[in-house]
Write the structure tokens for this entry.
Amino acid sequence: MPSSDSSTALSTDVVTLNPNPLVQALGKQAEEFTRADIIRFVIEQGVEMLNLRYVGGDGRLKELNFAIQSAAHLDRILTMGERVDGSSLFDVVEATSSDLYVVPQLRTAYLNPFTERPTLDIMCGFYDVEGNPLASAPQQILRRAQAALEAETGCRLEALGELEYYLFSEVDDLFGVEEQRGYHEAAPFSKWSQVRTEALGHLVRMGCAVKYAHAEVGNFVADGRQIVQQEIEFLPTDVSRAADQMVLAKWVVREVAHAHGIEVSFSPKIAVGQAGSGMHFHTRLMKDGANQFSDGTTLTDAARRVIGGYLSHAASLTAFGNTVPVSFLRLVPHQEAPTAICWGDRNRSVLVRVPLGWQNLDDRMFRDANPDAAPVGDLPDDSQTVELRSPDGSAAIHLLLAGITVAARLGLTEPGMLEHADERYVSGDASKVEGLDQLPVSCAQAAERLLAQREDYEALGVFPPALIDSWAAGLVALGDADLREEIADARIQVEDLVAHYFHIG
């Protein structure tokens, strides 16, 4: 082995090569942006418009448009925000006291990639009449969940999402798609690769921490349409940022697909017998800059406790992660989607998967692939994550990650969580293991499990009781308690159900 004296450590430079135009122009990371920075950028770059962006109670991205009229006008908006009608955005806000403020979060500023006029977009938070963060806003619930975790454990949770979706277009007879053979396929066999690469380019220039994009397994032709699946995966970041950028990603993919004249769906189930689309979330526990899930060689007790928290709350988490009846057409055996509440290593049949995390490795792979290169030396030991595989594109993303953060905190603080996890470890096909608890089979059942564990979510003031009541009632109102029986008896057609929930989140 070459001497370590010639090693070259991995770079820690996060500004050079950063594709975000604001980071490049201002020479600083987004977390350091000031009002003066934003105003200077607008002036120097000739930005004409400003959009305030925020996520409503339905999980969709909203916008408020401004024409910038002076530096003073821009500064006022950046500082004070604007009024909005909260009762039109949130079910739990009454019309009699509906006025809310939306205030820009400067670190989220990005150039809108789709407008003809140069336009700056900024994500906002909600505030009530007294200037306090809106207690029922999904973003604020997530912030409280993170604060509670940090107060009780000294740790923070980071997350990365996997966004899967299907594209629908006319059939291309050249290099036709092969059913269920799309995984990491390259052009010309991979159709509409330009959609994911364009979306990828937009997202990184918007400041989103994206890992990669690729073609997914789902490939088929039905009803005269070519239907192909793709995925965009992100890098681990603070749960609040992870939630925001997943919402932005859905918007970007829709805009790119629309520009190409094709349709996109994030629905968890498109057709019987075909792969569904999930929205898996990987998490890692951070303290003092170190990943608490790995000691460099093995999975830590802290990781197993967190897994225990996830498993003990898996059923109720579906209330936030699987919010439409077709969600439970995906959560069936033998469809690379979980049904049993268990975990395992590198096992895609389980609910909670521990993927490869570069543990017990030095730079041997790099040296083998590049025999003439200098050794790298020590590699980072921060890569180990734990993946929750049940959520899908219908998820209320901020509420889901808030719930996951609550489950992580309880896993670390409640007794018996190590044992709870160890008793539910599975090494083989989880669908063949008897005696395991099962995920809900309907939104109605998910609501029941949420109400049964509501005290856990409401503890420390994280979830407002009124929101739990409203959310559970909304799930029950979908009327899917007997959905599987109705499908089996042909009282309801899967195709009609899929069409109804084609556009979600």
Observations:
- The two ends are 52 Å apart (CA to CA).
- Confidence is low (pLDDT under 50) at residues 1-5.
- The longest strand covers residues 156-170.
- The longest helix spans residues 239-259.
